[in-house]
């Protein structure tokens, strides 16, 4: 089955700097890659996703990139703000099985 | 829509007691998932249902865990007997299928279980 590895497990950045979180997956058939944000004590919520027919997708300060050949995808947050502090999860699915999540990255944005 | 609704939000129970967690998925969603979240293991899929039918329960840790979905609007996750290592946040989630269409999984608020 699918296996998703996520790095780093913790990340601290200064406010205004960029943050990058990387994930690799094992199943070459995977074609859907969402990212979830989980604030302290809250539920995971989808913030952006990408499908295998797209290499990059942006939504304001966040962007995701996908390299199907290398089987990795990344989340980029620019101009980080304190409210970006949370745990971020990547996930992958080939469509007929549920999402498999990475173990999460705890992002701290230092004001 | 009220979203995925879980109860109880918090539960503290003694070792050996039965615990029942409840979930109401988003109306119209045909897939339901139970996840467990711990610091050590992250988000683990325990079991999921399609159209009320359990499809994969390979993530259920032991026979002490069982899940049911008697109808499209209700599911339970039961732990009997409970043990301290079961302490975790249990999330219920729902979505439409197929996932290849990128149908988003929506999570409930979670049930925070502490077994003492």
Keywords:
heterodimer; A: 111 residues; mainly beta; six-stranded mixed beta sheet; B: 116 residues; 11 strands; globular
How would you explain this protein's 3D organization?
The complex is a heterodimer of chains A (111) and B (116). By secondary structure, chain A is mainly β. Chain A is built from no helices and 11 strands. In chain A, strands 2, 4, 5, 9, 10 and 11 form a 6-stranded mixed sheet that branches. A 5-stranded antiparallel sheet of chain A has the order 1-3-8-7-6, with no helix packed on it. In chain A, a hairpin with a 2-residue loop joins β6 (56-59) and β7 (62-67). Chain A is globular and about 40 Å long. Chain B has 116 residues and is mainly beta. Chain B is built from no helices and 11 strands. Chain B has strands spanning 5-7, 10-13, 19-24, 31-38, 42-50, 53-56, 65-71, 74-79, 88-95, 106-107, 111-115. In chain B, strands 2, 4, 5, 6, 9, 10 and 11 form a 7-stranded mixed sheet that branches. A 4-stranded antiparallel sheet of chain B has the order 1-3-8-7, with no helix packed on it. The model of chain B has no long low-confidence stretch (mean pLDDT 92). At the A-B interface, β5 and β10 of A face β5 and β10 of B.
